[in-house]
Amino acid sequence: xxxxxxxxxxxxxxxxxxxxxxxxxxxxxxxxxxxxxxxxxxxxxxxxxxxxxxxxxxxxxxxxxxxxxxxxxxxxxxxxxxxxxxxxxxxxxxxxxxxxxxxxxxxxxxxxxxxxxxxxxxxxxxxxxxxxxxxxxxxxxxxxxxxxxxxxxxxxxxxxxxxxxxxxxxxxxxxxxxxxxxxxxxxxxxxxxxxxxxxxxxxxxxxxxxxxxxxxxxxxxxxxxxxxxxxxxxxxxxxxxxxxxxxxxxxxxxxxxxxxxxxxxxxxxx
Amino acid sequence: xxxxxxxxxxxxxxxxxxxxxxxxxxxxxxxxxxxxxxxxxxxxxxxxxxxxxxxxxxxxxxxxxxxxxxxxxxxxxxxxxxxxxxxxxxxxxxxxxxxxxxxxxxxxxxxxxxxxxxxxxxxxxxxxxxxxxxxxxxxxxxxxxxxxxxxxxxxxxxxxxxxxxxxxxxxxxxxxxxxxxxxxxxxxxxxxxxxxxxxxxxxxxxxxxxxxxxxxxxxxxxxxxxxxxxxxxxxxxxxxxxxxxxxxxxxxxxxxxxxxxxxxxxxxxxxx
Lengths: 270, 272
Known about the structure:
The complex is a heterodimer of chains A (270) and B (272). By secondary structure, chain A is mainly alpha-helical. Chain A has helices at 2-26, 45-51, 54-86, 90-105, 108-125, 133-158, 162-169, 174-203, 206-211, 218-228, 233-269. Chain A folds into 2 domains: 1-31; 46-245, MetI-like (MetI-like fold), CATH 1.10.3720. In chain A, 80% of the residues lie in helices and 0% in strands. In chain A, α7 (162-169) packs across α8. By secondary structure, chain B is mainly alpha-helical. In chain B, 71% of the residues lie in helices and 0% in strands. Chain B starts with 7 loop residues before the first helix and ends in a 12-residue tail after the last helix. The chains are: A mainly alpha (270), B mainly alpha (272). At the A-B interface, α1, α3, α4, α5 and α6 of A face α1, α3, α4, α5 and α10 of B.
């Protein structure tokens, strides 16, 4: 039984990682574009081409700008919203949460199409401005907001609401009480929400595809590359992205386990 | 806290960017090019019932395969030591962090007629297989892309399961198969439900995977919508009608799924 489950685990992980491994190996392939699945020697030439690709760098810049703006705006709006929703009565809370869940339940393609209808409608009535960075940022904030709210809400529920009142009784203004008392309590949820918004925004293709006009983000750029069926350049790009993600995850994991250990040590001492 | 007003900017935002667009979809679906009310678009969706059936069939197939493949792995991971558990969960999640276009592209290089699998077969002296541009390739792509969404909720339910319940069943003389079918599986139902919805919804509405791995012949609902908005057959009214039908379809599916979940535990699984 034990060996059987080991074999099974190995097979599933083989299925999950073999394609990625193949991508990485072939990113170093010294091939012409015609024969992308025949190995013909080691080379960095696709990486060299990638770095010189102005379109790619432009797409990367757009993606990062959108992700940073969308993460910041959706975190601020979403945190405020979570506080507001937390103070609502049951009936109103349920109604607002239903609307909040809509973009998460709806297929991405429907969200994308509906936003496109709105943007095209507004753009036309304002004299044919075209979709681009601005519409992309609005769309990204919209689909990030629910995730921020859902990661802040549990922290608010855990918090003792009397703390906020106590701070005010002791002479804090409501704003000061928020920053000194409430925010530190819910900060883990806020940070999680922000990170989630950032990664969702970087990774999104479907909604961006419908709301971007002619502006390119990284996923849209990748899509146009796969359509042209060219280039081990994509393999090189995938390898770089995969490497970055892996390093980031290892750092996060390492920090978490360090935190956990520190916590455990504290518990033992106490 | 009497801070209801903090939600006001959000309420305005969501009205403009969620409710208004949805209303626009409904309006477009029930009007023609000149803005006159019509049922024609909805009626026209009926012509594409084969596309709808194909999407539902392929999406359901991918969901079942993900469940059958993912359940044992989730079970195995939930029964190993805590430290290795975390590593395994990270390994399941890692491919998800790569853009799905790249993951699908990887399968293109593998499955092509002159791709790596066929080259391998040829080097063993075997004949070529036609793998890409088939329905099988589309299902494979869906399973590959979405199976982590099945494994993770299953894992989080299985790892929280009270092992003494399982032991009690064994003490009372249940066989291994009985323990699984009478105790473990029913208790893991919330995870199964959220896994199924998290795989089925994106699978049924995909439009890139079918395009990249299925060729032109295996059109799905998503491709149809794409064609009406950004493709050759530009017709946003029909596109909105198809989107509306897709939305209703998914709401019905989720309604049915929620019937199975007795609502005792709230979802259990959503851990992303």
